[in-house]
Each structure stands twice: as structure tokens, then as C-alpha cells.
Amino acid sequence: MTDIDHAAPRRRLPVFTGILVLIALAILISLGTWQVERLHWKEGLIADIAARQAASPVPLADIEAMAAAGGDIEYRKVTASGRYINNKERHFFATWRGQTGYYIYTPLELADGRILFVNRGFVPYDNKEPETRMQGQLTDQQTVTGLAREKLPGKPSWVVPDNDVAKNIFYWKDLDVMAESVGLEKASVIPFFVDADSTLNPAGLPIGGVTQVDLPNDHLQYAFTWYGLAAVLLVVVAISWFRKGAKTPQQ
């Protein structure tokens, strides 16, 4: 075997290593760039939601028209009037400011006979039953202002428990089942919810204004991580090549 045969693998190895380094760099930089794009998208989304919450409320009909056209109604301010059907309220298991309890979803019957489910707010665990908070069971004509919330297409995750309809405990907001469980026809129910604002109810229950907008925005941190890894890889490769070049080959 000649010296050329021995040298050939050594010449090919740096080329192969260089290709791997370039591929790794391309992946890391792509991931960093993707996170930057996600950052801009998330910042725009947060700003849009803030603008919706700060806007003046619009009539329910406007939100219905937007929903029918396929528009994004989430967190848009809306106002509606009607009579609460208190004996058909549904209870959604929730925590509020560290306290366990329920969000009270009460059907609001509109002037045209249709039904809008309103999340009136939070009650502590011991106040689940209406008899413990009768002052808050509003009667007569009421006007509610709040945020439109879209109907969920299905169970959010397999880790979420199934709704216990018999005990009137919902772990996810299944609008169709909420309506069906109290004898309301699906066709008469408006296909989204409204979260009531923080207007004080008699005796303080339910506690309104419980909508939680939690949009974590860690994309800048992730972008720095991927770009940092790319920079570290470049430094490691540069040091390695420098050290190899500094060595005097033995003839």
C-alpha cells in the first residue's frame, strides 16, 4: 500500500466533517430564525388581543355575523341583553386566585328566544349550589358585557377528565353537552360563549371578569439558544482547525 493510499482517507475525513458541520449550522440557524418569526407572530397576537379587550363593546349581532363569516371572535368585547335561566346553570371546575371552585355558565334567553351561555364568573367550592348564593341569581331583564369566547371543537387533551354531567361538573367547555343536559335545543343556542366582565353581582357572587389570557412568549429566549449553539459550533470548529494547522506534519 502506498503513502497516497494512507493519505486519502485523511484528506476525505475533513471534507465529510465539514459537510456535517454545515448541515448542523443550517439546522441551528433555521431553528433560530423560525423562533424569531414566531416571536413577531406572538407579539402581534398579544397586541391584537389587548386591543380587542380595550375596545368598546359591540352588539351581539356583530359578533354573530363575524363568527358566521369565519372570523376570529375570540376576546372581542360584546354586549347582550336577556333573562338568565338560573335553574339551568352549568358548573365548570376551575381555580381563581388560588381558590378552588366553579365558573357558573348560565343560559341567557334573548328577546328572540335564542340562548347565549354566559360565564358569569367564579364561585368558591362551597357555593356550587345556587341556594348558597341566591342574591346573585339575577332575575328580570339583564344586560351583560363581556368577552366572546369560541366554542371548543373537542376535548382539549386526553389528560383532561371527562365531564361529569350527572353531577353538573364540567372539566372542559362542551357547549353542545351543556345545552343538551338542560334540555335546550342545539339549534336555539348561539355557538359561542361570553365571559362576563367584572361588574359586581349582588353579595359578590359570582365573581366576574375571570377571563385568563395566558400566552407565554419565550421565543426570543429560544432564538438566542439556537443561535448561541450555532455560534458555539463555529468556535469549536475554528479552534479545532487552528490546532490542526498549528501542528507540524511529520514527513
From TrEMBL:
Keyword Manganese among record annotations: no
How the protein sits in the membrane?
Answer: Multi-pass membrane protein
Subcellular location(s) of the protein: Cell membrane; Membrane
User: Which Pfam families does this chain map to?
Assistant: SURF1 (PF02104)
Q: What cellular component GO annotations does this protein have?
A: plasma membrane
Query: What domain of life does the UniProt record list for this protein's source?
Result: Bacteria
List the InterPro entries hit by this protein, alphabetically. Answer: Surf1/Shy1, Surf1/Surf4
Which UniProt keywords are present, listed alphabetically? Answer: Cell membrane, Membrane, Transmembrane, Transmembrane helix
User: What's the chief localization of this chain?
Assistant: membrane
- TM helices/strands, residue ranges: 12-34, 224-242
What is stated as this protein's family in its record? Belongs to the SURF1 family.
Q: What is this protein called?
A: SURF1-like protein
